[in-house]
Task: inverse folding
């Protein structure tokens, strides 16, 4: 048996060979969580390469290999006893890189193929360097063969491939320029593996058990604490009592570790990773051969910084009101990424280099930087690097606040200016970008800017975001919109373009009462609001596109006044139109789905003509041929961006699973709307809803539990028969051993049919989420997208069977194209006895499959 450290490139490159996953191994099962972690490691290694750091690699894990019974001298074959998840994931990532560059660099795409993925001169199964277990083999092979090779359906393999296609599009954004070949190099030559190669007769399963037998690991803070006090031989007790115990009492272990990391960053180490904290600080001490005085000085500085750090965690502890207000807003934004800059500002103030008013001014630049980027849809994937570099890059020749303003305005920070901010407020679908609490925070700050003499208590108000023109408008609303259409645009198309823009959004505590009602009824409710923005909306005579645009202009004026602009003339790179979200959405399109130019335009806040021109002129956009006209036809002016790249577009669509009607149009059931595209980009674990299955039953001041609130809200909108059917459904689910979790929304409360350990988030699984209707009738959301990353429903066939069972309900017809999304069923259908019985049987089937997978 041999064990050695190696790299993916060294393992798979060279002579023709094959790594076979045995049949007894489980199928490929990495979910969004593991994929995100790997991608974060890859980006970090790519950044280190860009910075010229050739030494720091990332340990990915082990691979245990044994000779295959089919081994040949001229064609080595290895059984992958352990590590198949890593090898499969890396191979899919490289296939995604190859396809990402195929339209612009076909020679490099071919090189990646031959070096890592295929045995060029072999045929059949021998053609593939990695041969997964049979359940995954055909789909994996289709993705390795490349676009147009017949990759179908969902499942974990498809999910991983689409994940990397989506992330590669994001990495191409100019705000975070990542050379795709650096990403390739990071994957193949910076992620280290330990390869254990067994001889014939070795007990490889014993090796596997040993490698996977893990215990409780010490944290970085534990390791560093032990290191420090081992060196305080005479002063240890004093330092422990005077500094360490108060420090440990004021911060949790995780917070203490974060503070230790921040101290390194403040000292100018802008590349240190938190997981390398112990090694980095140890190396710093060893270089200086520390005596007890130096170690004591370090702990004393940690103690001093802890009171500053607590103000970031608990803004109410900050004594200055202006600084406290900024810290509170940044805390509500969940802006932990800015901590290096915030700690620097508080530290410099304590040292006397700036006063509180200058600190507040500097914090306003940090807040503006985040808010303007969010409104203008600048990707967040380089924020860590930007703020971690602040302590080391802050210009020394300027006052601190001016220096930070200049630094954040500099080249490739992409802090949007006033013109771009105004344009995005006018046109971008604000409701579909950023996290829900950030969208709410923007509207709250705009409301606060009115400086009402009796300001509202936002913490107690339980406000949510409301569309003034509703998301599902009735005929009265469409008639008003029809008065504002131009250039042949239909009222429906105009509504799709403006409904999610900031000018059509407000805050309210009566979301369910407002619902889809005509403007005249909404006026009365908004007029009685304590919010100035609502009273201004109510004061208008009508509400259409003209009024939305006028309000957007007013909000833009306020935003420009609230959030300072970057400095001009600092060498900023100007951003062109933000096409990156569109590229991401197209890269994420599941098999057998299409979208329209209008849907894609609505998704990004553009015009359909501009979308068409961009797709025709830009090579390398994944699935660009699957963007059709609204009636499902290939556009008259369609052309491949790379001449000769795609062949006959109808044939390519058919190969992608698109069905055609008798009239030659693409099947409308396979069309994905702008909302579907938003859900795709958000991902199965996206944070696009403010409700979660936390299972807790927190009471309001009236002692009304979440369960009671859900049923009350349901009864306000649905018939007694529907409410009785939902109660019976809950009782059936609990009889199956499940439990009912309720969402954390304080206004509208959802209900989750949970399996697993009650009350512990992340420990269970749920097939459907129930929502009261808020004026439109309650719905049951079938969470196919969530299930695609949860065993055993990573198997697409099981999800397809679930869809088939649901479609047996009367008046339910969920198209197969929604198998990667979250379609809804009206709860009123459960008032029919036949439907209630079928759904109960379906839930029993779901429980049985989950229990079989999770049996001891």
Result:
């Amino acid at each position: 048996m041999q064990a050695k450290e190696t790299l993916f490139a060294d393992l798979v490159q060279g002579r023709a060979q094959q790594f076979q996953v045995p049949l007894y191994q489980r199928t490929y099962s990495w979910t969004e969580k593991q994929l995100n972690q790997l991608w974060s490691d890859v980006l970090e290694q790519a950044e280190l390469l860009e910075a010229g750091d050739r030494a720091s690699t990332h340990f990915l894990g082990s691979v245990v290999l044994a000779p295959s019974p089919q081994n040949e001298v001229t064609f080595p074959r290895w059984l992958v006893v352990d590590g198949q998840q890593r090898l499969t994931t890396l191979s899919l990532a490289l296939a995604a890189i190859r396809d990402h560059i195929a339209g612009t660099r076909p020679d490099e795409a071919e090189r990646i193929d031959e070096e890592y993925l295929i045995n060029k001169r072999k045929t059949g199964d021998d053609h593939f360097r990695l041969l997964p277990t049979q359940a995954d083999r055909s789909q994996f092979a289709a993705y390795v063969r490349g676009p147009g090779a017949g990759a179908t359906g969902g499942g974990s393999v498809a999910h991983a491939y689409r994940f990397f296609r989506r992330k590669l599009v994001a990495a191409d954004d100019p705000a975070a320029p990542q050379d795709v070949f650096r990403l390739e190099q990071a994957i193949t030559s910076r992620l280290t593996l330990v390869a254990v190669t067994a001889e014939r007769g070795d007990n490889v399963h014993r090796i596997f058990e040993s490698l996977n037998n893990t215990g409780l690991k010490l944290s970085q803070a534990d390791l560093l604490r032990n290191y420090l006090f081992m060196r305080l031989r005479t002063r240890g007790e004093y330092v422990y009592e005077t500094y360490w115990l108060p420090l440990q009492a004021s911060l949790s272990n995780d917070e203490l570790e974060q503070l230790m990391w921040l101290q390194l960053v403040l000292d100018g180490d802008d590349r240190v990773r938190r997981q390398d904290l112990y090694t980095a600080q140890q190396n710093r001490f060893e270089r200086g051969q520390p005596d007890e005085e130096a170690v004591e000085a370090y702990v004393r500085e940690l103690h001093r910084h802890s009171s500053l750090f607590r103000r970031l965690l608990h803004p109410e502890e900050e004594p200055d009101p202006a600084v406290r207000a900024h810290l509170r807003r940044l805390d509500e934004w969940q802006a932990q990424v800015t901590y290096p800059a915030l700690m620097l500002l508080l530290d410099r103030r304590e040292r006397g280099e700036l006063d509180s008013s200058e600190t507040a001014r500097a914090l306003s630049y940090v807040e503006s930087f985040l808010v303007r980027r969010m409104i203008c849809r600048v990707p967040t994937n380089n924020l860590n690097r930007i703020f971690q570099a602040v302590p080391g890059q802050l210009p020394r020749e300027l006052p601190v606040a001016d220096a930070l303003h200049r630094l954040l305005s500099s080249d490739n920070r992409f802090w949007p200016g006033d013109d771009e901010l105004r344009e995005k407020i006018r046109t971008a679908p604000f409701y579909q970008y950023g996290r829900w609490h950030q969208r709410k925070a923007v509207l709250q700050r705009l409301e606060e800017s009115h400086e009402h003499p009796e300001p509202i208590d936002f913490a107690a108000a339980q406000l949510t975001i409301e569309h003034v023109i509703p998301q599902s408008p009735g005929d009265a609303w469409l008639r008003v919109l029809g008065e504002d259409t131009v250039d042949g645009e239909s009222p429906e198309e105009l509504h799709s373009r403006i409904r999610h823009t900031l000018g059509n959004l407000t805050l309210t505590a009566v979301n369910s009462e407002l619902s889809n009602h005509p403007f005249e009824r909404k006026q009365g409710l908004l007029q009685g609001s304590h919010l100035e923005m609502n009273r201004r909306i109510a004061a208008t005579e009508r509400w259409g596109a003209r009024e939305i645009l006028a309000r957007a202009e007013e909000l833009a004026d306020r935003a420009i006044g609230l959030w300072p602009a970057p400095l001009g003339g600092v060498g900023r790179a100007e951003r062109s139109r933000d096409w990156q979200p569109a590229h991401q959405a197209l890269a994420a399109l599941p098999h057998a789905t299409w979208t329209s130019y209008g849907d894609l335009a609505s998704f990004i806040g553009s015009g359909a003509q501009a979308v068409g021109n961009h797709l025709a002129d830009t090579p390398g956009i994944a699935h660009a041929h699957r963007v059709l006209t609204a009636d499902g036809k290939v556009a008259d002016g369609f052309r491949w961006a790379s001449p000769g790249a795609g062949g006959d577009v109808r044939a390519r669509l058919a190969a992608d699973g698109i069905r055609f009607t008798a009239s030659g149009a693409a099947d409308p059931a396979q069309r994905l709307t702008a909302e579907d595209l938003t859900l795709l980009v958000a991902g199965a674990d996206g944070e696009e809803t403010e409700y979660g299955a936390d299972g807790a039953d927190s009471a309001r001041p009236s002692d009304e539990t979440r369960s009671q609130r859900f049923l009350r809200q349901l009864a306000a909108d649905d018939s007694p028969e529907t409410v009785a059917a939902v109660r019976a459904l809950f009782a059936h689910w609990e009889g199956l051993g499940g439990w009912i979790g309720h969402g954390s929304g304080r206004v509208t409360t959802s209900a989750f049919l949970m399996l697993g350990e009650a009350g512990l988030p992340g420990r269970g699984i749920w097939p459907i989420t129930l929502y009261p209707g808020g004026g439109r009738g309650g719905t049951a959301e079938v969470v196919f997208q969530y299930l695609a990353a949860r065993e055993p429903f990573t198997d697409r066939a099981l999800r397809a069977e679930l869809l088939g069972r649901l479609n047996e309900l009367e008046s339910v017809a969920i198209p197969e194209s929604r198998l990667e999304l979250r379609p809804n069923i009206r709860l009123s259908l459960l008032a029919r006895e036949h439907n209630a019985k079928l759904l109960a049987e379906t839930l029993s089937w779901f429980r049985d499959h989950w229990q079989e997978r999770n049996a001891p």
About this structure: The longest helix spans residues 292-313. Confidence is low (pLDDT under 50) at residues 212-216, 572-576, 684-702.
